[in-house]
Structures are given as C-alpha cells and as structure tokens.
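Morning F.,

Quick status update on the modeling queue. The single chain you submitted on Monday has been processed. Sequence for confirmation:
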Amino acid sequence: MPPEGLEQSRFPSGNAGVSDSGGSKSGNNGAGSGPPRPPATPPKPTDPELAAVAAAWPDLPPAIRAGIVAMVKAAGGGGVTGR
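Structure tokens below.
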C-alpha cells in the first residue's frame, strides 16, 4: 500500500529560511499597525452657513467656541467632542 497523507516533496520549495519576524524584506509589518490616520485636510462643508462657521472658527474666542459646541451638544449633534 502506498503511503498516505502529507509527503515531503522530492523538489525544494524555495522557501527556506522563512523568518518569524512578522515583516517583509521591506520592513513592512502589514496593514493595521498603528491607529488609522485622518485625512490630510478635512472635507469642506457644503452648507454655506456651516462653511462660514468653519472659516471663522480659528479666530473665535474660546468662550464663543465653547458656546457653539454646547449648543450643538444640546441639540443632539452626534460626534461632538469637547476639545
């Protein structure tokens, strides 16, 4: 009866010396290493009033910014963080 199961090939596979380092020759450890990065520039709002708020935001005093954030939170605006 011939042997059954996984048999060693008579021909070399060419995969000798596979590393356990988890990376490739380029040093890439694969996708998913580290947190995802946000887009380089956020998308521009399409609503003209929102665009005006976004454009003015850097120059607004902290108290005004806090007031706007508080109003959005009170209205149930999702995704607002208290930065």
